[in-house]
Structures are given as structure tokens and as C-alpha cells.
Write a structure and sequence with these properties.
Beta-Lactamase, single chain, alpha+beta, 401 residues, 21% strand, Phosphatase 2c, domain 1, 9 helices, five-stranded antiparallel sheet, 2 domains
């Protein structure tokens, strides 16, 4: 190695030779003296014979193995990445495909296709559970809408029947005002405002002869269809039994006896019946548990017809009713009403009350009776604010001459 160092003037070889003589081991890179090719020189002592051995190996031979290993590693890495990518794509498709089907199905359902059902998705993961829940929701929604459609049709049928019943009921009540335009001795006006489609309140009036008129206001127990049916029966019955010769009290006793028979539903009605002489202003009346009428003069003075403690019709067929009398002066009005007026309730649960009602009548008693009823109902509407819970009926009779 020293010969080569001297021959080619290689200081590096001299240094390596000294290290070999010193028994060291190591490795160095040198350039081929002829070709300039890069080579590796490896040296190590041989202890058995006190020698030192050196080998020169071309770098390309060494790197050939390394490069092969690098290429293999890169190839393995690429294949691994491809496998990972395929797994990711497979997993993504497995997740997004059911979601895409869900989106498509949701769009079809939104357009009204309730027969839509997602199929072909198996497994036990969250996506599968979501698909099952979606299909169940579609099934439940379809049957809910079917049930709702049936219920709506049934309700519409009932509402139609109720409208017909209300129309029939309205036809039973007097609707033409003034009712007796040829009778200048008095004026009469009434209004019925039902809380439901069919009312339990009613009013009626009819001439008993040329000088006497029967005036009726009543409030049937309950509301709705049952009250409406009982109202129709009671109205017809009262009109049948009213007899000027026996008076209002005896007429009520006749009606009460009939209503008590076969009254399995235990329905009853409060009712005020008056026979009024249009020439003299004299009034005979009987009260079956109804609210006491109010008499008002044009100057606003008020008096009540304090009635006897007689019970409603349809409770006791042996009850004896009592009779009262009064006389209306010219210009005075008598106001008949049902409890839906004084028991009208505000959103704050405050009652309209008898005191407020009487004060209102006193304020407007000198006005035309149709105006009086209009202002009272307007005041009630403003007080209740669409919270009417009971039928409201008001009838006003005024002595003109």
C-alpha cells in the first residue's frame, strides 16, 4: 500500500497504511488511479499472524445491493399505500353509498312517494341502523298520513253534519226582525251566539191572541249536539203547552212533566216564560231556574224581576211553579239573557259579571233595542277576546205605546 502511495503520490494511502501497521481497522473511499471510479477500501488486522488485510471494492458493487433494497422498500411502500388507498375508497364507498341512497329516498319522500324503501344495505353498523330507522320512519309516516286522511274525512263529515244541524237549529229560531211590523205597541229583538256549532240556548216568541205575546228564553244543560236536540224538543213542547187561559206557571208545569218522562240522559233546561199584554204593558211570568230579567227605563234606572226559587225543567215532574206579575211603562225595556252573558270570561279569568252587565244596560237603555244588543255583544267580544265558553243569548222587549 506504501508502494502505491509513493507511485501515485497518494497521501491518503500513506495515512491508511500507517493505520494498518498500527493494527487499526476502518473504511475509506478512494478514486481508482486509472479510471477515477469511486471505490471503498476496507482494512482490518489479522491477529493470528500479525498482518493487516485490506480489500478494495467498487462502490457500485456495494450500492447495487443497497439500491436493490431501497427499490424493494419503495415498491413495498407503494404497494402498501395502494392497499391503504383501496381500503379507504372501499370504506368511503361503504359509507357514502348508503348515505347517497338516503338522500335520494328522502328527496322522493319529500315529493310524496311514501312507498319508497331503501334495500340492499346489510350489516350491523350505525349506517345499517340508520337505514332501518329511515325505513321505519317512512312506514310510520305513510300509515300516519293514511290515518290522518281518514280522520280528516271523518271530521269533515261530522263538521258538515254539525253545520247542517246548526242551519236547522237557526231555522227553528225567529230570524225576522221586527217580527210583528204591524204591532206598533212594542218592539222586540233577539240574538243567539253559540259557543259551538250547535247551541243549547234558545229564544222564541209568538202571539197568543191579538193582544198577548208569549216570550221565552232558555238555556239547556250541556253544549253541542245533545243540548241542541234537547233544545229543539223543549222549544216545540213549550210552544205546544202555552195557554193564555192557564197562565205561564201552569204551562211550565205541563212542559216539565213531559220532559221528566224517559229522561235517561238527565238533561234539563232553565227557562223564563212571560205572557205580555201589548196594549197595557202588563206581564205575567214564571221562571224555571233561569237568570232574573232586568227592566230598564230610558233614564237608566234599573230594576230586576226577583223570581221565585223554582227549579229547571226536566228534574222533578211534581214541582209546582209560581207566577209573578209586573208592568212595563212606556219606553221601558225588559232584558232576558242566558248565563253565557254574565259568566263570560276574560283571558285573565275575570268574569264579566251581573254588575257590569246592569251598568252597561243603564248606560244605553234609551237607544234602539237592536243598538243595545249590538253594543252589549261588542262589549262582550272585547272582554272575552275569542274565549267564548258558553252560548250567549239576549232578548229585549220594549213597550213603545
Amino acid at each position: 500500500i506504501f508502494s502505491l502511495a509513493e507511485q501515485y503520490d497518494q497521501l491518503e494511502l500513506r495515512t491508511i497504511g500507517k493505520k494498518m501497521i498500527a493494527g487499526e481497522r476502518g473504511m475509506a473511499t478512494i478514486d481508482d488511479f486509472f479510471t477515477g471510479e469511486k471505490k471503498w477500501l476496507v482494512y482490518s488486522p489479522i491477529k493470528e499472524c500479525d498482518w493487516s488485510f485490506a480489500a478494495v471494492i467498487p462502490e457500485k458493487e456495494i450500492m447495487k445491493t443497497v439500491n436493490s433494497m431501497v427499490i424493494k422498500q419503495i415498491a413495498i411502500m407503494i404497494i402498501g399505500l395502494l392497499i391503504i388507498l383501496l381500503v379507504i375508497i372501499w370504506a368511503a364507498v361503504g359509507i357514502t353509498n348508503p348515505i347517497r341512497k338516503l338522500v335520494i329516498s328522502a328527496d322522493r319522500i319529500a315529493k310524496g312517494d311514501l312507498n319508497e324503501k331503501i334495500v340492499g344495505i346489510k350489516g350491523h353498523d350505525e349506517i345499517h341502523q340508520l337505514v332501518k330507522a329511515f325505513n321505519k320512519m317512512t312506514y310510520d309516516l305513510k300509515h300516519y298520513i293514511q290515518d290522518l286522511t281518514k280522520a280528516t274525512k271523518a271530521r269533515e263529515a261530522v263538521e258538515s253534519e254539525l253545520r247542517i244541524a246548526r242551519s236547522i237549529q237557526e231555522s227553528l229560531l225567529p230570524r225576522i226582525f221586527p217580527p210583528f211590523p204591524d204591532k206598533e205597541e212594542f218592539d222586540l229583538y233577539a240574538r243567539n251566539i253559540p259557543a259551538k256549532e250547535v247551541a243549547g240556548d234558545f229564544f222564541d216568541f209568538f202571539m197568543l191572541d191579538e193582544e198577548h205575546i208569549a216570550v221565552i228564553i232558555a238555556d239547556v244543560s250541556g253544549k253541542g249536539v245533545s243540548a241542541g236536540l234537547f233544545m229543539a224538543v223543549t222549544r216545540t213542547l213549550i210552544k205546544t203547552v202555552c195557554d193564555l187561559k192557564i197562565g205561564p206557571a201552569a204551562s211550565l208545569e205541563r212542559a216539565n212533566y213531559v220532559l221528566c218522562q224517559d229522561n235517561d240522559a238527565c238533561m234539563f233546561t232553565t227557562l223564563f216564560l212571560a205572557f205580555y199584554n201589548i196594549k197595557t204593558g202588563h206581564m205575567t211570568w214564571a221562571n224555571a231556574g233561569h237568570d232574573e230579567p232586568i227592566v230598564a227605563a230610558p233614564n237608566g234606572s234599573i230594576r230586576k224581576l226577583v223570581t221565585f226559587k223554582d227549579i229547571a225543567l226536566g228534574i222533578d215532574d211534581s214541582h209546582t211553579y209560581h207566577e209573578g206579575v209586573t208592568t212595563l211603562d212606556k219606553g221601558e225595556i225588559i232584558v232576558l239573557y242566558t248565563d253565557g252573558v254574565i259568566e263570560a270570561t276574560s283571558p285573565e279569568k275575570e268574569l264579566y259579571g251581573e254588575k257590569r252587565f246592569i251598568e252597561k244596560i243603564g248606560e244605553i237603555a234609551d237607544k234602539p233595542i237592536i243598538t243595545i244588543i249590538n253594543e252589549i255583544t261588542k262589549d262582550l267580544d272585547g272582554f272575552q277576546l275569542d274565549n267564548q265558553f258558553d252560548d250567549i243569548t239576549i232578548l229585549i222587549l220594549k213597550r213603545e205605546k
